[in-house]
Design brief:
The structure is a single chain. The protein is 37% helix and 16% strand. The chain is of the alpha/beta class and 454 residues long. The strands form 3 sheets. Strands 1, 2, 3, 4, 5, 13, 14 and 15 form an 8-stranded mixed sheet that branches. It has a 4-stranded parallel sheet with strand order 9-10-11-12. The protein has a 3-stranded parallel sheet with strand order 6-7-8. Helix 7 links the parallel strand 10 and strand 11. Helix 15 packs across helix 16. The chain binds zinc ion. Zinc ion binds next to loops.
Length: 454
């Protein structure tokens, strides 16, 4: 994957797009619009002026302005662009070298127009904010936390330069430092690793955790937690955290957890893709490869299905049998919190070894439906609920007047079959229409070299 090719694609797209001037008027006509704040609208017209949607409704009531550029979408389905709210913008392979911009392009071509990256270095955070800032680039809008705040001994968690505060004063200074770096939120870890490993990580002292959350809130930052175990998830919610970045895997969610989530108005990001991956990496890799009909990232998935890839990851996560034994609990937990009206937000943990960029965001929606959500609820998790998590629901997350025109035009109805989110005809960011095939045409994802034999 070469950055030079991505730069070329970006230039072509920028050249093709006209500035968001008053005369830049488009009408997306003839599609069924899903996610317009009510029931689907058939034979709809979506008027886009510059970057924003100005009118949406049936053709009979909206009409098509004579001077509008027509985007003919007869027989197609328009949904808001998807958001993946737990995505490390890495490919999911074992290759150490990564090009995040390439990964962002792949993500965009798979329909993700907003991405939230929990855990990345401050430098990478700043780079990706800059790279994605222009509305004309075929890349998702980028949000993130900077490096995760964790404990000494968490080698994976500190690999992005994460701080390990041991006193309340240190916790407060970590928050000030992250605030100064411009992060969108803060991520904290509370996990002994027992859901997938025989090793045990230490836990942050509760007074340090409490100081971290209260200082973050004082600075106007939300705090999201890596806390896949029930008891530790309760700890972070008692401290005031604003959401869980993984579903609960070890035990059935109980009323106490639900009450804490509701009290905090906290979100629940299930990352079912991560659990499918850890429970049975080879099977998950094959599922991703088969799901990727255009064969864009299937070489990466195929690489992760190889026995030596599986062996290498299992040498790090050496109790995946535990994960596997808890898969039905994890699925039932999503339905429990959803039924309790906790806002569920779509996130995959893409970039973790074996959770492959792009394709997993699409399969995550199918996993939610398999767990008992309707296709409409799964789409809401990836659109309006994600926008609310970011505090941007006035800007995006649905197809309504005044919002940014971030849309997908699909060839088939995702409410009939959620896997139809794969059938992407066009990806629209801020009114600029992109052909996903063209977004991907400048580069090719190749099979990563096999990991060394161990
Ligand atoms: Zn993660």
């Amino acid at each position: 994957m070469k950055s030079v090719d991505i730069a070329l694609v970006a230039c072509l797209a920028a050249g093709a797009a006209s500035p968001a001037a008053a005369q830049d008027l488009k009408a997306v006509t003839g599609a069924t619009v899903i996610g317009a704040g009510g029931a689907p609208i058939t034979d709809a017209v979506v008027i886009i002026e510059g970057a924003r949607i100005t009118r949406v409704g049936p053709r009979a009531t909206i009409g098509v302005p004579a001077n509008a550029t027509i985007v003919d979408a007869r027989g197609k389905f328009v949904i808001p662009g998807l958001a993946d709210m737990h995505n490390h913008v890495r490919s999911g392979s074992l290759r150490p070298q990564q090009n995040p911009r390439t990964n962002l392009s792949v993500l965009f071509a798979f329909g993700v127009t907003t991405v939230f990256n929990p855990s990345l270095s401050k430098m990478e955070f700043a780079d990706l904010k800059t790279a994605t800032a222009s509305d004309t680039v075929p890349l998702p809008r980028f949000f993130g936390t900077g490096p995760m705040v964790t404990v000494k001994g968490d080698t994976l968690g500190t690999s992005d330069g994460g701080a390990t505060p041991e006193t309340e004063a240190e916790a407060r200074s970590v928050v000030k430092d992250l605030k100064a770096a411009g992060v969108d939120a803060i991520k904290v870890s509370r996990d002994d690793a027992s859901w997938a490993s025989k090793q045990r990580l230490p836990l942050m002292k509760l007074e340090v955790l409490n100081a971290l959350v209260s200082e973050a809130h004082r600075e106007g930052l939300k705090v999201y937690a890596h806390a896949p175990l029930l008891d530790y998830a309760k700890d972070v919610l008692r401290a005031g955290a604003d959401g869980l970045l993984h579903g609960i895997i070890d035990k059935a969610v109980d009323q106490e957890l639900v009450d804490l989530l509701i009290r905090n108005r906290a979100v629940y990001v299930p990352t079912m893709s991560l659990y499918e991956d850890v429970a049975d990496m080879a099977a998950w890799a094959k599922r991703q490869s088969a799901y990727d009909e255009r064969k864009v990232v299937s070489p990466i998935a195929d690489g992760m299905a190889a026995p030596n890839s599986v062996q290498l990851v299992q040498s790090i996560l050496n109790d995946t049998a535990f994960t596997k034994s808890r898969m039905s609990i994890q699925r039932a937990n999503l339905k429990t919190v959803f039924d309790a009206k906790v806002p569920v937000v779509m996130g995959t943990d893409s970039g973790f070894f074996g959770v492959v960029m792009g394709v997993s965001s699409q399969i995550e929606l199918a996993l939610m439906v398999e767990a008992g959500l309707t296709p409409a609820a799964a789409l809401q998790a990836a659109t309006i609920n994600a926008a609310r998590m970011l505090g941007r629901d006035k800007e995006s997350g649905s197809i309504e007047p005044g919002k940014l025109a971030d849309l997908l035009i699909l060839d088939a109805n995702p409410l009939d079959d959620i896997t139809n989110v794969r059938r992407i005809h066009r990806v629209v960011r801020a009114g600029v229409v992109h052909d996903p095939a063209q977004v991907l045409s400048g580069f090719r994802v190749t099979s990563p070299p096999p990991p060394p034999n161990r």
